[in-house]
Amino acid sequence: MQSCADAVLETKCGSIITIEVAAGSKCDAFPSGFNEWRKTIGCRVTAPAREGRANRAVVAVIAATLNISESAVSIQSGVSSPIKRVLVQGISKPDILLVLQLLLQS
């Protein structure tokens, strides 16, 4: 399995995860793979990409996966794009990578 370290950047405000969203999927899933070429972590949500529904679902699924509050997760860029940069506060890059690597390997 490819390392997803290139998709996570630690800043003084928190960690930024670059994701690629597939809205309207059959199930919610994060992570749902790693795109080595784009350096993005996959995120599938059942919500449609309309009226911010998919963005709200992205925040919810990332927060649930990392076991943190939804208020600690925010979309920093890519609100209307499938490629998004998501800020996660209160968890370090190494901790995020540990969770993601475990989930991607299973």
Question: Please, could you describe this protein's structure?
Answer:
The protein has helices at 53-66, 93-105, and strands spanning 8-11, 14-23, 34-35, 40-45, 73-77, 83-88. It has 106 residues and is of the alpha+beta class. It has a single domain (5-100), classed as 2-Layer Sandwich (Conserved Hypothetical Protein Mth637, Chain: A). Strands 1, 2, 3, 4, 5 and 6 form a 6-stranded mixed beta sheet that branches. The longest helix has 14 residues, at 53-66. It is globular and about 35 Å long. The N and C termini lie close together (10 Å). The mean pLDDT is 94.
Nutshell version of this structure?
The chain has two helices and six strands; from the N terminus they run ββββαββα. With 106 residues, the chain is α+β, with helices and mostly antiparallel strands.
CATH topology: Conserved Hypothetical Protein Mth637, Chain: A
What count of helical segments does DSSP give? Answer: 2
- The CATH homologous superfamily is called YggU-like
- The end-to-end span amounts to 10 Å
The string of secondary-structure elements, in order, is EEEEHEEH
What profile does the largest beta sheet have?
6 strands, mixed
Count the E strands. Answer: 6
How many distinct domains?
A: 1
The level of helicity is 25-40%
CATH-scheme architecture: 2-Layer Sandwich
List the helices and strands and how they pair.
Blueprint: E1 8-11, E2 14-23, E3 34-35, E4 40-45, H1 53-66, E5 73-77, E6 83-88, H2 93-105
Parallel strand pairs: 2-4
Antiparallel strand pairs: 1-2, 2-6, 3-4, 5-6
